[in-house]
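Case study 2.
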Amino acid sequence: MNELIPKISISVNDTIRKAMQVIDQGELGFALIIETETKVFKGVITDGDVRRALIKGYGLETSISSISRPESVTARIGTPISEVSRLFSDIVRIIPLLDDNNRVVDLAIFDKRFHLSVAEPTLTDKELQYVTECVLTGWVSSAGEFVSRFEKIFSDYCGIKHAVATSSGTAALHLALVACNIGPGDEVIVPSLTFIATANAVSYTGAKPVFVDIESETWNIDPECIETAITSKTKAIIPVHLYGHPANMQSILEIANRFGLLVIEDAAEAHGAMCRGGKVGTFGNIGIFSFYGNKIVTTGEGGMVVTNDDELAEKIRILCNHGMDKDRRYWHQVLGYNYRLTNVQAALGVAQMEKIDEILQKKCFIGRKYTEFLQNIPGLTLPVEKKWAKSVLWIYSILVDEKKFGITRDKLMEKLSDHDIETRPFFYPLHTQPIYKTAQKLAVAERVSSQGISLPSSVNLSVDDIKRVAESIKAIADT
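Prediction:
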């Protein structure tokens, strides 16, 4: 029996005074009502119930049996956590767990951290302060000082000359491709294992995405596969820094230079990641980042294009703003897009960038703890960090080998859901997607995709939360 239960239990014959004393002593805002001799559960009395009784004129010596209380919600001991969690509501915050004799043997108490999400933003008073400033001054659209502040703080952080804020990471990638004059008849090499937006942005231009396999360790584009995919139509390579680990930019740039190809880095998931001492996004001709709600830095929706090329930066700024001439208002010489970031979103971004080092430190701490707790479980492949790289572990992701672990990746996800632990599968390889399906057999991408699972990785996780996930995985493996 939970050792707390006797301390917060009172008899059906006890008084309001006694209930108040027990509730105060227990510091949980409620007391359990128990039949004195049989110990059978009779209900719950909360501090709110007591307060309402006193307002109605009941005295301190009134028996609690006289107080009107809502019917208690209970569950049987052994009920799956997922089922118990569904019983909670705005009113129900305590669920006694009963044995077959209707005696309380444990308690389920609502906790907002009970459900562990894969990702969630970290928003504090600073974000609220900056957004409130936008609202109070009326600068809520794409004009306003926070947009330029966000671009400046981000370019300084990356150590690059230009940063142009956009409405999404996908918009940033589309702009980068258009600015590089990629269009119909061109081919762009893309890793098959990535979010579909990487390929879609290529398709928006009329060019063709060409898919290649990935490395088995980093899960990033395999440089050895790039060269065999190059044709006379190849115009660019898009390396993706998947899940926060840098792609091998040294090898990719060597191939690009040899064949005269552009390099556009998709760093949507890797803010602050390092490759041989330099920040990702700064190696190629252009880099892009995403600020979607689950990213390391978020503006809700949003993106950024970064480059050291003055001409490309100028083109991107014009294309981002309907193709409007920068010196002649409402004069449009090129087809442009409405891909601007709002001042309100940029205000969030500035606040987020002011604490990016803190966020990344916590991400790395979470990664180390996961590795510590999971490293001895057979059948799991944990994320690597190559000697030349600094991964930011955007989302801590693992591979599950069914033969060694005992069950499939999908079954593990299902069982973790029963423990109220959210997970996500890896992306489907792009060459298997209905919109892009080819006859290719990219063995590594297909295997990694089928085995990959992303675990809760919010910076709000405590060590106990991480341990809970790891222990749940171990318990599932042992059953």
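The domain at 5-109 is CATH 3.10.580.10 (CBS-domain).
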